[in-house]
Structure to design on (227 residues):
């Protein structure tokens, strides 16, 4: 397997929402996974269609087709989409991929369809094709969806296990790699906390890298012991 990070633009989170003294600019990152079974896209960028969201977050987008072209791929080449959750900054390119299966937790889709959650047109659009999951699921050999609730009740991450180790695409399970590092240190030492209950499950895969949706920094685990 090979993973390409796609830069799909950025947006501004207010100081009040971010809990910081100043507004914070955050990237919108997606990930293309090349697998022997096909091409999987994890998240699809910042969506359009809500004037209130435009004013609040002031997004600057890079088109999904342009980002994919940078790694030699067209939207029509994508076989499967996995959204970590259905907020507008993660599923914005889904309508461009109509007809592809979109893997999402059943809880997440129900919440999105209940209203006042995201941009509705990014969820139900002509050709939308959902595969609803209830918990963990194997997508392809070495590719597993793992529930990581917290940011939303139906948030999920993607675990990629190959000959050179495991990489986790964690979406917005944590905003920053440093936050993940702090929780993982608490979990591994038993000191501090609390940490998310799903972190034990992630740790069982012994990931060598964990990547995020709104942080270009990457968490790196200890190198495996020789032999």
């Amino acid at each position: 397997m090979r993973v390409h990070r796609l830069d799909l633009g950025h947006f501004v989170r207010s100081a009040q929402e971010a809990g910081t003294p100043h507004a914070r600019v955050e990237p919108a990152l997606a990930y293309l996974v090349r697998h022997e079974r096909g091409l999987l896209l994890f998240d699809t960028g910042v969506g359009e269609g809500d004037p209130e969201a435009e004013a609040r977050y002031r997004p600057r987008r890079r088109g999904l087709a342009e980002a994919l072209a940078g790694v030699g791929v067209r939207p029509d080449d994508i076989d499967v989409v996995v959204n970590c959750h259905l907020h507008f900054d993660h599923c914005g390119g889904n309508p461009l991929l109509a007809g592809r299966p979109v893997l999402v937790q059943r809880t997440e889709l129900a919440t999105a369809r209940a209203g006042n959650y995201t941009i509705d047109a990014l969820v139900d659009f002509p050709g939308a094709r959902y595969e609803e999951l209830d918990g963990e699921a194997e997508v392809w050999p070495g590719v597993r969806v793992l529930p990581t609730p917290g940011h939303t009740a139906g948030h999920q991450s993607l675990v990629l296990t190959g000959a050179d180790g495991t990489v986790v695409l964690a979406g917005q399970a944590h905003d920053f790699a440093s936050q993940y590092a702090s929780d993982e240190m608490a979990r591994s030492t038993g000191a501090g906390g609390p940490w998310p209950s799903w972190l034990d499950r992630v740790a069982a895969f012994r990931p060598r890298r964990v990547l995020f949706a709104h942080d270009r920094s990457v968490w790196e685990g200890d190198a495996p012991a020789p032999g």
Observations:
- The mean pLDDT is 96.
- The longest helix spans residues 177-189.
